[in-house]
Structure formats: C-alpha cells, structure tokens
Amino acid sequence: MRPFLRYASLSLPVFMALFAHPAKADGERQLLQQINAYRAHPDRCDGSYARALAPLTLKSSLALPVDYGGGLRDGLKAAGYQAALVQTIHLVGAHDVESAFDLLQRDYCDSMLDGQYADIGLSRAGSQWRVVLARPQIDPHLGNQQAADKVLLAMVNSARAHPRMCGYQRFAAARPLSWNGALGTAAEGHSRAMAHDNYFAHQGLAGDSPGDRAHAAGYRGRNIGENIAAGQGSPSDAMQGWLASPGHCANLMNPLFTQVGAGYANNARSDKGIYWTMLFGAP
C-alpha cells in the first residue's frame, strides 16, 4: 500500500515589532516604578474604579532609542524579542521623571492601564522619552516540551471525541490517539529545524519529507500525516488554528490515524518566532 500522506501548514502573522538598546539611567527605572505603582493602585482614566494590574517588566530589548529610525520589526527580532502586541509612545518636553509620568497619565492613561501589556522598554534623551509597551509572542505559561506535549495530546483527543465539519467535509467522532515517542522525536526535530534555519515548510532544507523524518526517528507505520504552524504562542492557539483550517482539521479527525507525536521550538530571531509540528501515524 502506498503511504497515505496529507500535510497541512498554518502560519499566523506576527505583529509589528520595535528595536531597543539597554536602558541604564536611573531616570528610566524611576519612571518604571511610578508606572507600576500607578498600575497597582490605579485611578481609572474616566474617574471610575479600576482593578489593580500586574507590574510591567523592564526589558532592555524594548528600550527603543528616542531617535531610532530603522526597520522596527527586524530590529526587534535582532534584539531577541518577538511581540504579539506592541505600542510606542514618544514624550516631548519632559525634563524629569515627574513630568514624564504626568504626560503619560494625562495623554496615555489607557495605555498604562492596559492589562494586555506585560513588558516595557524605556529610554531618554534630554527632555524626550520613548516608552515601548509590549506583550511577548510566547505565552509565559507555555512550560517545557513535555508539558506542551501532554496538552497537545489532550486537545487533539478532545477534538476527536466529537463529530465536526472540516470545511465541507463531515467527520464522525474518532477514537483517541496514543502518543508515539518516535513521532514526537521527529515532530520536535522538524520544529527545531524550522526555528533554527528560519523557514516554514513540510519539506526540510535537505529535501526530507514528513515520512522520511518519521522513519528516520524509528517509526515504521504505514500512514503519515503532518500539521505545522508558526507564530502561535501556546498549544491552544496552535490547536484552534488547526481546527479552523479544513486541511489541518481533516488530519486531526482522520480515523485512519491511531498515533501522534508533537513538538515546538522557538527562536526570537526567526521570522515567526515559534514553530509547531504534529505528526500522525498508524502502525
């Protein structure tokens, strides 16, 4: 029997990014203290009650120079920060920390109290300040490879437990998949290769196919299928994207598959930041 090969790929756009140099001056740290104190005990911008927010973490990779004019996305990647959400604020005429904070509170109150942001970059040149607010692409609770593997296995089996439409194709509920170590090794290896070599494709740079990688890892199954994704910061984001795509969804629901392996890898200096691979098989 010829191997059943069905491959599907998914990529989500990465939001715009900003470049930074380390923030060293005491003034920047003092401004950060005021911002975080305000987030801990905020007065809502319209005067109503506001809940306390987590403090922002100072990141040198987000300390965009006041006069920076280069390529923002490429610069941030070069600095090692991939942002899912980012905003830059330019303050003019603030001669000290207090006046800089007053300008932020007056003109950018909503931004300071936006709970989506987790990190901040600060820089100063005379009376000009640059504030960069960002949320990293990768979920800080992602955990290690083993934890992500367990989450992905639970999610794919939860999806297969219910009938669903994959585009115009109807699938009945399918039996759960079992984890296969060889498929997991091949999947993680392909994710690492994509992250390290900065590409996104089912075919490796050496010409290897998903079946080639599975068999090289020791898998001897007949049928091989592969889903890949890039740019999603958590297992749930990757799985939601696959289920929303007819080709990925069909692989996830295919009753011929009985085993699965998966893995991710990240490289902040790559185009997509994080890469996911899920390999399906049947012995």
Short description:
The protein is an alpha/beta fold and 283 residues long. 34% of the residues lie in helices and 24% in strands.
Describe it.
The protein is α/β, with parallel strands linked by helices. The chain contains 9 helices and 11 strands. It has helices at 26-40, 72-79, 97-107, 109-112, 145-160, 181-197, 210-216, 235-244, 246-253, and strands spanning 5-11, 57-58, 83-92, 119-125, 128-136, 164-166, 169-171, 178-179, 223-230, 259-266, 274-282. The chain has a 5-stranded mixed β-sheet with strand order 1-9-11-10-8, sandwiched between helices. α5 packs parallel to α8. It is elongated and about 70 Å long.
SSE series: EHEHEHHEEHEEEHHEHHEE
Distance between the termini: 13 Å
What portion of residues belong to β-strands?
A: 15-25%
Which of globular, elongated, flat, extended, rod-shaped describes the shape? Answer: elongated
Helix content: 25-40%
Q: What does the main sheet amount to?
A: 5 strands, mixed
The average pLDDT score comes to 87
Query: Radius of gyration in whole Å, from Cα?
Result: 23 Å
Strand order of the biggest β-sheet: 1-9-11-10-8
Assign the structural class, choosing from mainly alpha, mainly beta, alpha/beta, alpha+beta, or little secondary structure. alpha/beta
Count of alpha/pi helices: 9
The low-confidence parts are: 1-5, 12-24
* Strand elements, count: 11
